[in-house]
Write a structure and sequence with these properties.
The complex is a heterotrimer. Chain A folds into two domains: 1-41 and 188-257, no CATH class; 75-174, 3-Layer(aba) Sandwich (Rossmann fold), CATH 3.40.50.300. Chain A is 35% helix and 23% strand. Chain A has helices at residues 41-48, 88-94, 103-116, 132-144, 162-179, 190-196, 229-251; strands at residues 2-12, 15-25, 30-34, 56-62, 73-76, 150-154, 182-186, 199-203, 210-215. In chain A, the strands form two sheets. Chain A has a six-stranded mixed beta sheet with strand order 5-6-7-3-8-9, sandwiched between helices. Chain A has a three-stranded antiparallel beta sheet with strand order 2-1-4, covered by helices on one side. Chain B has two domains: 27-107 and 217-328, 3-Layer(aba) Sandwich (D-Maltodextrin-Binding Protein, domain 2); 114-214, 3-Layer(aba) Sandwich (D-Maltodextrin-Binding Protein, domain 2), CATH 3.40.190. In chain B, strands 2-1-3-12-4 form a five-stranded mixed beta sheet, with helices on both faces. A five-stranded mixed beta sheet of chain B has the order 8-7-9-6-10. Chain B has a two-stranded antiparallel sheet with strand order 5-11. In chain B, strand 7, helix 7 and strand 8 form a beta-alpha-beta unit. In chain B, helix 2 (40-47) packs across helix 12, helix 4 (66-75) packs parallel to helix 5 and helix 12 packs across helix 13 (266-278). Chain B is globular, with a radius of gyration of 22 Å. Chain C has a single domain (75-258), classed as MetI-like fold (Orthogonal Bundle). Chain C has helices spanning 22-39, 51-64, 66-98, 100-113, 122-129, 133-157, 161-169, 174-208, 217-226, 230-258. The model of chain C has no long low-confidence stretch (mean pLDDT 89). The chains are: A alpha/beta, B alpha/beta, C mainly alpha. Chains B and C meet through helix 4, helix 5, strand 8 and helix 8 of B and helix 5 and helix 9 of C.
Chain lengths: 257, 343, 262
Amino acid sequence: MDLIVREVSHRYGELRALEAVSLAVQAGETLALIGPSGCGKSTLLGIMGGLLEPSAGEVLTSGPLPEGCLNPFTYIFQDFALLPWRTVEGNVSLALEHHGLGAGERAERVASALALCGLVEFAHAFPKQLSGGMRQRVGIARAIVVRPALLFLDEPLSALDAQTRELLMEDLLAIWARERTTSIYVTHNLQEAVRLADRICVLSRRPGRVKEIVEVEVPREERANAEHARALAELQGRLWDLIRDEAAVADREMQDA
Amino acid sequence: MRATLTALGALLALALAGGQVQSQTKEKVSIAALPFVSSSPIFIAKELGYFDAEGLDLEIKIFNAAQPVAVATASGDTDFGITGLTGGFYNLAGKGALKIIAAQSREEPGYDFVAYVANPKAHEAGLRKPADLAGKTVGITTVGSTFHYNLGKLAEKHGFKLDSITLKPLQSIPNMSAALKGQQVDAILITANNAYQLEKEGAGKIIGWVHQETPWQLGALFTATRMVEGRRATVEKFVRAYLKGTAAYAEAYLQKDASGKRVFGKKAEDLYPIQQKWVKPEPQPQTVLASANFIDPQGRLLVRDIYDQVAWYQAQGLVDKDVDPRKFLDLSFVQGHMQVPQN
Amino acid sequence: MPETRPVAFRGGGFNPAGRRGASWIAFAAIIAAWQLSSSSGLLPALFMPSPLSVVEALARRVETGALTRHLAASLQRIALGWAVGTLGGLAIGTAMGIFAVARSIGLPVTSALFPIPKIALLPLLILWFGIGEPSKVATIALGVLFPTIISTYTAIDGVPRNLIRMGQSFGLPAAMIVWKILLPGALPGILSGFRISSSIALILVVAAEMIGAEHGIGAFILAAGNLMQTDQLVAGVVLLSLLGLAVSFGLSRLERWLLRWR
């Protein structure tokens, strides 16, 4: 399913967060949203999925829903947002319980999502018993169990250490290779963006505007190969040049939002 | 400046010494009492100087319930106490700290004090006399109160079981009046002035008086055991002054004419300022007369009745088995006690 | 080789772990000291009954069956009053945790009514509910209601907002968000509110049984006080505190089971 963002602006009281953002996400692609902190990346993600109401502009979709889709716009959260009183299985099943599925179908869906994320042996564990990486895998399983049309990832790896992040990126790539879910991936980590995205949308600092959209030419499955390392490093350098000055200014800003 | 202060200090010391000299001639004693008309012999004796005449300087400490009066005397806060006899009193006296030495109020035929008051509905439905209380719901202050005892004796007299009456402990007189008005109880036991008031408001019907059914020794003057043992002469002086008070009280409030009707004359009027000073809430002259119950003019106790009371409370499980009236009655201070058991 | 010195350990203390048995020993020591001072005459029976006489007083009531009667009457009032107050408190507290209107009305009203001693309202409650069971249950229920409102409201307010957002992002209906996210998330706070409200129920049973109660632990304690039967008075108080211990134990068990995910 395609997603079209048209002239979206947003303000929090006096503070202008987004200014006339327009962009289109094509079915099956992964778009990364990067920019200096406070540029409205997360705000834009909230607006795209209908969790925030924009001050102006509109968000449209086109194209058919994937088969078996229960929740077209689905999020994966930075802080995982797991219910601590539910087991891994219970957390994943939460997303299905209000859809009136039969118990058998629900169990089947949960089991296959757990299997896909390597969580089968943790099905009856509580979140506090899991490592951060495992917790985010539960968040991913909960998202894919509803077969979303659009997957919104809000800095999903930034609460994790570097090694775990590496492992989860591989998992995400594997899942995308299978499901081909249209995804919007918010991050402040340029390496993640270069590694995971088909296209990278660079936002300017507040109020956020689309500064540039960069295509990553190297096919996703080949990006781990050594021969592309140089091209990817150059791309990362270019992105850094685009946001560096603004990131420095943003860093010195007082927190008032 | 310093000189002035020193001089002042010296003056003060002199004044204090002078005061001491004066009070040294009188012995300090104290009594715990309720601010009721039934405590009047004490108020009268104090105001008319009977205690002074005995060389006693009396301090009256006012309490608002019978229980603290007994507790204050037992614990040594006061030397004497005067109040109604309750199950709680006997339990305390049974521990050996108190001695009853003279009479206070008594339910005596011809002198209205505590009434049985029915609510008008129940009255209409046939609750016409105290004996009809069997099977009814009756409000009392507390378990083991004098009202509880009155009902017990009433049941004994008319041959029904006390268990057949549903007792509602309501803690206070206002609660009892309210429960009667709200028809949550069929009847209550309440003192004369309140009973008249309820009848006047149409909220209750007086169906009888305790003195008509079960006359009994209601209150007593008592002292701490240590006083009898250590300051016997003081106790004797105190009782002499008290008996002058009871005699004056009887002359003013307990007179009857030839037909047996109570009459109040100039003496009652003369004593009114004393009542006004001590009785709380400050009473109207009429209220004093309505509340003036019988107090034996010579302070004589109905001794047999005290034995009966203890036995009844014990039978109810409200007074400990080992409480023995012989141990807390000291009959040597007043002559002519009535119905003294021979044993 | 230069001289070496050991690094001194500085991290001890400030770690109050429960020592099992210590509390029992303390209890036993206090009771033994009490009995000793009673039997040696240091503590006159007039002022404080000995533990033995308290036990005797209790045993007497057990024999006559009076104790069961008192316990049954009080437990019924406590259970009913607590349940009514708790259900009301949960409903109002939850509403205050969710709806802006309920919060802006409920907060000042609760703050105004909470500190009123319920015993002071007893005459009013008697006018409204009579001197029978309803006024006793109402006294306890009122006492339980306000702390439950406050603990429920605070607990709901403390449920992380991101969990609610997560629920919304998966399209959970509002009722499901309350039932599956807000209430379970507030459960720890609600349960610790139960500890307070159950103690309040026990405290108020004495006040509730002041008026027109023939049976009940509170009525028993009050009667013993009026009769100066100090051994029975203390026996009744001991009974109340045993009840408190039992309730606290039961709640701990419930907590451990319901909050096993913590």
